[in-house]
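Duplicate of #3305? Posting structure anyway:
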């Protein structure tokens, strides 16, 4: 069924329209629209009014670097370091890759520690 196919894409980590991508998109869109010249347009102002709070609550709920305690550096790449970290709520250990690029403060790539053990 088409509906099932769509739901499958929402939960597929490799899909460009998975939930994480859609949350990134709406967050970026709301933030990019918060420019006075754009906000003078009624449709943009309405859009921000509708989604600003949602985006704030999504940011508070999503996994973020502050949810992890850094244990040690386990690798270095061309753009940054890979840290061994522990998720403070679940106690699960992950590898966290931090990229230092001009246009981003911190990008993290979480990989289950079990994958490290299998390498
Ligand atoms: N999931 C992981 N588990 C254990 N060690 C890891 C993991 N990911 C990366 N590392 C370690 O960190 C090192 C650097 O990894 P990274 O992915 O940053 O390399 P890179 O591809 O050269 O980096 P960049 O993407 O910045 O070019 C790896 O060589 C490895 O030793």
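Output from current build:
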């Amino acid at each position: 069924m088409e509906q099932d196919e769509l739901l499958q894409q929402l939960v597929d980590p490799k899909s460009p329209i998975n939930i994480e991508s859609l949350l990134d998109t709406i967050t970026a869109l709301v933030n990019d629209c918060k420019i006075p010249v754009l906000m003078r347009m009624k449709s943009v102002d309405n859009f921000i009014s509708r989604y600003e709070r949602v985006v704030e609550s999504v940011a508070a709920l999503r996994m973020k670097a502050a949810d992890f305690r850094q244990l040690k550096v386990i690798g270095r790449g061309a753009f940054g370091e890979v840290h061994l970290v522990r998720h403070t709520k679940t106690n699960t250990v992950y590898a966290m890759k931090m990229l230092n690029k001009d246009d981003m403060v911190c990008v993290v790539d979480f990989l289950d520690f079990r994958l490290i053990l299998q390498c």
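Confirmed duplicate; merging threads. The domain at 65-118 is CATH 3.30.200.20 (Phosphorylase Kinase; domain 1). Residues 74-80, 82, 95, 97, 111, 115-116 surround adenosine-5'-triphosphate (CB under 6 Å).
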